[in-house]
Design brief:
5-stranded parallel β-sheet; 40% helix; globular; binds adenosine-5'-triphosphate; binds magnesium ion; AAA_ATPase_domain
């Protein structure tokens, strides 16, 4: 064996299995030895090793109970399908005597099936997924530099433990105050030299008092860990809360001490406070490949963070394809999604990879109070074939359906439309199109009404936008729809009065968010409006939003809509009835057409006595619609 070969460690669940492993004959292959019991490895088995002899490899044998908590374990990878208890006597040897193979030639390209972990906890998943970032932060801390990490809340406890331990520093952690303030404990007594401590402290004040104490106790071997700096001292610049001011003073007051603080991506930390940290590291989503620290190898995420059982549950599971469906999730959420997917498909006979992806999508929608799984497809939209074709091309680029030659792949980000603005009269299917796009992308969708985004307080609208986008990334692939986009994205010139200045800030925030898009976390923004002329031109630059007109349906589109809705409600429009309705409804929108068939359906099923949907009845409904419209017009003119 050459020196480049690493040792493997085989883990047995108990003494008996460990003893069985020790008794393995030296000449059998690693594959055969490992297949003889419930053995696991601390690293994926290197390709081809399964075919080497047990004696050559002489693995390190470990007991599972003695491993440090958090050690990921891997099922052995086999080159061929091996029975759980291989009957060695059944395999004829090269001499035909029934002796096991000794010198079995490795196949030219060994099939590397499962370098997947057998089991994986959320903390292990976090440490594996963010291995590079953790190493980077640990080396900064070792160099006695303070770091501000922007990361989602669920991963924070796993991150700081590993970062501090790899940096060789003891963590002094600022803990959250207990939920219930009345814990019966005596209030902390002020010490001599302390600023006056109020007798009754609220949780934030107690946290501050604790922080003061921790900072005072720091030394060269410790790192101060603040898990949620944004909650402790959040807010925008220029309006520092008293707490934020105090935290800022406290942390700046100990410049020689090493600090590690965390903030959530959607919340902001005042700049004066952020400046206390020499470096800012942003950790979002999961990486495409995972880097093994002890093993210079890269593994696709779908292999490193998905267990053998999970991968085997879904037929045609592809670890490379997997990434696209979870790119924006954090590792903790990803593990929860996988557990959920396995439990949902527990009793299904043969789920396939596609089922896994739809379940992940449903999970994201469930985890988010806002995002949902759309139920509209392109088939539910009649007409507008050109718009459909145009949108399909864009989706193909966003989703990476077209393989580009490697030398052009860097152009992909430049080809991706960041968003669309659908403009046209009301009821023409703009929202419908947005939902169908989300469905085509296998994406989750959030439809927000523009006015809802606009807050009353300074900075509130921007924060709403930041939160929407942070959640959109987590749920990627995702589509964010701003209905009545003109209400938030109006032209700057429209806002010359000070009162509506927030409009500009919101546009700026949306642009910032859109400029930060990563192609591997597909998030598409769609604005819909009836008044394109009001939209800020900055948003209409070709690299940002592409505007697409969705006008009133033409004759052909109306006819198609009529057959679509008629079929949906089970109403007969044969014998030219469809054409009559189509011509009567010239100038009307899709919503009107839909309402004709909805009304006919209601009359046929819920009216007493029921009115069957005959051509005459349909004619009456269309007539009523026309009259109503004329009345509306007249009252509108008045
Ligand atoms: N092209 C179409 N094909 C089938 N149905 C349509 C079409 N366009 C509109 N509809 C019907 O009209 C309803 C309303 O459409 P939608 O909400 O998408 O309109 P909109 O353009 O977003 O309107 P608004 O500008 O008022 O928000 C849909 O639920 C659907 O029933
Ligand atoms: Mg709409």
């Amino acid at each position: 064996m050459t020196t480049s070969v690493r040792r493997i460690s085989v883990v047995a669940p108990d003494e008996a299995w460990l003893a069985a492993l020790r008794r393995q004959p030296p000449h059998i292959t690693v594959e055969q030895a490992l297949a003889s019991g419930p053995y696991l490895l601390t690293l994926p088995l290197p390709p081809g090793w399964n075919l080497l002899s047990w004696e050559t490899v002489s693995p390190e044998l470990l007991l599972q109970t003695e491993l440090p908590h958090g050690t990921p374990l891997y099922a052995p990878a086999y080159a061929s399908t091996v029975p759980a208890q291989p009957d060695l006597t059944k395999r004829p040897g090269p001499d035909g005597t029934g002796e096991p193979h000794r010198e079995q030639a490795p196949p030219e390209t060994p099939v590397y099936r499962h370098p997947q972990p057998a089991d994986l906890h959320e903390d292990q998943a976090t440490v594996l997924a963010y291995g590079r970032d953790i190493a980077q932060v640990a080396s900064l801390l070792r160099a006695r530099l303070s770091v501000l990490v922007v990361a989602e809340k669920p991963v924070v406890p796993h991150l700081w433990r590993e970062m501090a331990s790899r940096a060789g520093l003891r963590a002094e952690v600022l803990e959250e105050p207990p939920e219930n303030d009345d814990d019966g404990e005596p209030e902390e007594q002020p010490r001599p030299g302390d600023p006056l401590v109020p007798v009754q402290q609220n949780p934030r004040q107690r946290l501050l008092a604790r922080l003061r104490e921790l900072v005072r106790g720091l030394n060269d071997d410790t790192v101060l860990v603040v898990q949620h700096l944004d909650l402790l001292a959040g807010g925008a610049d220029g309006q520092l809360s008293p707490e934020a001011r105090e935290v800022t003073e406290l942390l700046h007051g100990a410049p020689e001490r090493v600090m590690l603080a965390f903030a959530a991506p959607s919340l902001s930390v005042p700049e004066v406070l952020a400046e206390r940290f020499s470096t800012r590291v942003t950790i979002t989503g999961v990486p495409r490949t995972v880097w093994f620290r002890d093993d210079q190898e890269e593994q696709p995420l779908g292999r490193a963070l998905v267990t053998v059982r999970e991968a085997e549950r879904f037929d045609r599971y592809d670890p490379i394809e997997f990434y696209k469906h979870v790119a924006g999730m954090n590792p903790v959420l990803l593990r929860q999604a996988m557990r959920y997917a396995v439990s949902v498909h527990k009793d299904h006979p043969a789920p396939v990879a596609r089922d896994l992806y739809s379940t992940i999508r449903a999970f994201k929608a469930q985890m988010s109070s806002n995002f949902e799984v759309p139920d509209v497809g392109f088939d539910d939209i009649a007409g507008y074939d050109e718009v459909k074709a145009h949108i399909q091309r864009a989706i193909d680029i966003v989703m990476g359906h077209h393989r580009l030659p490697p030398e052009h792949d860097h152009l992909r980000t430049k080809l991706i439309p960041r968003g669309f603005i659908f403009h046209g009269p009301p009821g023409t299917g703009k929202t419908l199109f947005a939902k169908a796009i989300a469905n085509r992308m296998n994406a989750t969708i959030l439809v927000v009404s523009g006015p809802e985004v606009m807050g009353t307080y300074v900075g509130e609208s921007e924060r709403n936008v930041r939160e929407i986008f942070a959640e959109a990334r987590r749920n990627a692939p995702s589509v964010v729809v701003f209905d009545e986009f003109d209400s938030i994205a109006s032209r700057r010139s429209e806002h010359s009065d000070g009162g509506t200045r927030a409009g500009n800030a919101v546009v700026a925030q949306i642009l910032t968010e859109m400029d930060g898009f990563r192609p591997e976390v597909p998030t598409l923004v769609i604005g819909t409006t009836n008044r394109l002329n009001l939209i800020d031109e900055a948003l209409l630059r070709p690299s940002r939003f592409e505007s697409i007109a969705i006008d009133l349906p033409n004759d052909e589109a109306r006819l198609k809509m009529i057959s679509l809705h008629a079929a949906k409600f089970g109403i007969d429009v044969s014998g030219g009835v469809d054409e009559l309705i189509a011509s009567a409804l010239r100038g009307r929108n899709g919503d009107d057409i839909h309402s004709v068939f909805r009304d006919a359906f209601v009359a046929a099923h819920f009216q007493d006595p029921p009115v069957p949907p005959t051509p005459e009845q349909l004619g009456q409904i269309v007539g009523r619609l026309q009259r109503k419209r004329r009345e509306q017009r007249r009252s509108g003119r008045r």
